[in-house]
Design brief:
By secondary structure, the protein is α/β, with parallel strands linked by helices. The chain has 17 helices and 22 strands. Bound molecules: adenosine-5'-diphosphate (ADP) and magnesium ion.
Length: 474
């Protein structure tokens, strides 16, 4: 079996001190004993709640091949019969391993940031680029101070494309991460009020996202949403950071990667795009205008990475919405089926708008209604009430028939909706869940969305439990 890392290379990368008889190599890197697979190296990093050193025995039991531990904690582990590499700081060792992985790869490296759509875009890139080469990409939303170095350290030597999600809650967080990643292509999906609690304005958020340009390789590319009101700010920041080529994607006629036509279909969309002068028609497997936008970023990045656009465009049809990020279920009610759209993973003003418009574009059956089940958008600080109230206007522009709301902030929206609009407000998730279960019927389209912390995934689970999934959902 080929190793991800030989022990020799690991020791060299982190300049560590080997203790015990090290194996020839390891098959992977883990920082979590619950997901560790036999043969992997366990890095005992300290998280927010736990210290990995307390899980050394668990790592051994799970089949770890070796442990990376800190000098300071070694005395407490001393009698473990496990090969170890001892370092001053385990997180720093993970970063050094990541830097070594970056140094040895010949892959085209893509980094994705933005206020919404990072994971969706990253997964779409993973999917389409897999049709033209070997791809490595971040697991889930592993986009922070440990997620990025972990993803780097896990990068196999022989991959052709590597895609990294990079996120932030505060200014200064992206800079050190992107300097580790050193992307050839840096993508900014969009700027919106997410984690606005930590920022004074959207400009400030944009400037923090723009840190991603500071790590772009010489001769590299910035790929920015051309339709975003902060395009100019980002464009300027990219040039100031010395990025050689700045590109725009979107509907704006100055976008080099331009969405020319968008046609929603029940479960997908058809798009026409012009990619750096080349005309392309494609089916995008996940519906919604925001997915078409993401697809433009995907096509643009693939083009800049030198991938065969015809193959990539074809693969777009196979994209599926992720769990909690627009995944659809066709469920059976007594007289027929209804559509459930699961958007319960995340919510901020940009993704809320996208999801309300997605529901609007979803067909309903005879007698069916479009029902938006909405919970609080968290972390909006002093802007929260205004941003929740502003959803009323977006809803008014759509064919939404009913709005079901829960959570302290959604009270503002309940009050902002016109009095003759069918809106139901319940303070708690449980009460709202009971109401939703009682209300849905055949023909409906139901979209459930809130910030993860509000727990609306429970409503999705309850619906999926109460109503069986239809076979051959068309
Ligand atoms: N381009 C986009 N514009 C607005 N919302 C989007 C976009 N792409 C995805 N979304 C929605 O945003 C939410 C979060 O998506 P995700 O990809 O997990 O974002 P992130 O990784 O940036 O947190 C999902 O509900 C998803 O459907
Ligand atoms: Mg994410």
């Amino acid at each position: 079996m080929s190793h991800l890392w030989t022990s020799e290379a690991l020791v060299a990368a982190m300049d560590g001190r080997p203790v015990g008889r090290l194996p020839e190599g390891v098959s992977g890197i883990s920082i979590d004993t619950r997901t560790l697979r036999p043969g992997e190296a366990f890095f005992a990093i300290r998280g927010d709640k736990f210290d990995g050193h307390d899980f050394a025995t668990a790592a051994m039991a799970a089949g770890a091949e070796l442990l990376v531990v800190s000098e300071a904690r070694l005395p407490s582990l001393g009698r473990m019969a496990m090969p170890m590499i001892v370092v001053p700081d385990v997180l720093a060792a993970l970063e050094q391993t990541g830097a070594a992985a970056r140094a040895r790869t010949r892959a085209k490296v893509i980094a994705v940031t933005g206020s919404a759509g990072k994971t969706t875009t990253k997964e779409a890139m993973r999917h389409v680029l897999s049709s033209v080469g070997k791809v490595h990409a971040s697991d889930k939303s592993f986009n922070n101070h440990w997620g990025v170095p972990l993803t780097l350290a896990r990068m196999p030597e022989d991959c052709d494309y590597a895609i990294f999600e990079i996120g932030m809650n505060h200014p200064g967080e992206i800079r050190p991460l992107v300097k580790l990643v050193r992307p050839h292509i840096a993508v900014v999906t969009l700027i919106a009020a997410a984690h606005l609690g930590h920022f004074k304005s959207l400009d400030e958020i944009a400037r923090a996202k723009a840190e991603i340009f500071e790590g772009v390789e010489p001769g590299g590319h910035a790929l920015i949403n051309r339709d975003d009101p902060r395009f100019k700010l980002l464009d300027k920041a990219a040039r100031a950071a010395g990025v050689a080529h700045v590109w725009g994607f979107g509907e704006n006629n100055r976008a080099q990667f331009r969405l020319m036509k968008y046609k929603p279909q029940p479960d997908s969309s058809a798009i026409a795009a012009r990619i750096d002068g080349q005309d392309i028609c494609a089916k995008v497997g996940a519906p919604g205008r925001h997915m078409a936008q993401n697809a433009l970023a995907v096509l643009g990045a693939a083009h800049l990475a030198g991938a065969d656009l015809a193959k990539v465009a074809l693969a777009l049809s196979g994209i599926e919405a992720e769990r909690g990020r627009g995944r659809r279920h066709t469920l059976v009610a007594s007289a027929g089926t209804f559509t459930l759209i699961d958007e319960s993973y995340n919510a901020n003003p940009a993704s809320m708008k996208a999801a309300i418009e997605l529901l609007d574009a979803t067909p309903v059956g005879p007698g069916g209604r479009r029902i938006a089940v909405l919970g609080d958008m968290l972390e909006l600080g002093s802007h929260s009430a205004r941003l929740h109230g502003a959803l009323a206007e977006i809803i008014a522009q759509t064919n939404t028939d009913m709005v079901f709301l829960a959570g302290p902030e959604m009270k503002t929206l309940a009050e902002a909706l016109p009095v003759d609009f069918h809106a139901e407000y319940r303070p708690g998730v449980e009460e709202l869940q009971a109401l939703v279960l009682k209300t849905v019927r055949a023909g409906d389209a139901v979209m459930v969305k809130s910030s993860n912390g509000i727990g609306f995934s429970r409503i999705v689970d309850a619906l999926a439990k109460a109503f069986p999934a239809a076979r051959n959902a068309a």
